[in-house]
Amino acid sequence: MRAEVFPFAIARRKSMGSVISVGFSLTWETPVLIHQGDICIRSVDGPREALRYLQRDFDQHSGQLYWNAVYSCMRALRHRSAPELARQCFIIACDNASIDVS
């Protein structure tokens, strides 16, 4: 009877045992270098650093290209897409925000 009154409790209890694999140590073959003028001010080596940059240091937290980069980095970290796709989306978001990258 308790399951009929609170059916979500049983489903929730079952999902608590699953483990989500996260690739915090994933790196790109070639890092993305962020420049200010002729000086490289930062190197972003993988999706974890890119996501951190997008969330903390990116001036523009809106727009489709920004959210594509955030989403692709998250998917790469959860092993749902290729890390290089996240790299490309990150570069495109930076270009869109007039951040000089190479």
TrEMBL record:
Pfam families (UniProt xref): DUF982
Matching InterPro entries: DUF982
Gene3D superfamilies with a match to the protein in the record: 6.10.250.730
Protein known as: DUF982 domain-containing protein
